[in-house]
Design goal:
Shape: elongated
CATH topology of the largest domain: Rossmann fold
Number of domains: 2
Largest sheet: 5 strands, parallel
Mean pLDDT: 84
CATH class of the largest domain: Alpha Beta
Helix content: 25-40%
Strand content: 25-35%
Low-confidence stretches: 133-144
CATH superfamily of the largest domain: Response regulator
Structural class: alpha/beta
Order of helices and strands: EHEHEHEHEHEEEEEEHEEEEEH
Length: 255
Amino acid sequence: MNQAITPMLPALPLLACVVVDDNEMNRLTLEHYVTITNGLTLTGSFPDGIACLNYFRAGGQADILLLDINMPELTGLDLVRILPKPLPEVVLVTSHRDYAVDAFELRVTDYLLKPLDYARFCRTVDHIRSLQVPTAPAAADESGESMFGAEGNSLFLKINNRLTRINFDEVLYIEAMSMYSVLVTLKHKHIVYATLKTFEERLPFAHFTRVHRSYMVNTQLIEAVEDNQLQLPGGHEVPVAKAYQESFFRRLRGI
């Protein structure tokens, strides 16, 4: 009789996870996702932000914090602001897209929308693992459908499942945020499901250049350069990383 052979899974470094959600069903779902994912272990699960805060203040540790936003007494956003440093990789979990800009401001690692999807959860875990090993090859880009044909200095981008015309003459810079990118203008921050690598490879406008692992900048809007910091309108600043300085300043001399 043939016996079924159980495949040997590769050993991955364990990442400790903490779950915080006041909705029991969502909390149990996240706990289940952690439990069934190779390389993850659950070290804490809390129904509110205060219990989570007490856990970390008492010396509790985590590599990944899966955190609901809308909770009584202490919201997820407020919890991130007061947690002891250094922070774990924070993944905000919410049913509201409107919090994406707040997530960007707090520089969280990722942003999961409810209802929760295990495939999307796995992509988040893969991304966090890639941050632990900077030399790892970039994950396959699945965001090619986020950009649509250029017209003049504009490009149609898929934002919140809707095609939106963006005038790239008004974009100050583009910042990486996990598997998303944030296009910053003087009036708006547009969050697009496309990596910065995608913009670098496919953006059809020559006046944008990569100056940092996390930034592309509109060279037409640079007002000044001081101590390798680019001064942009509205008081915005973008750093020029050492690895990009030679190519950037060579290009700047040619403008």
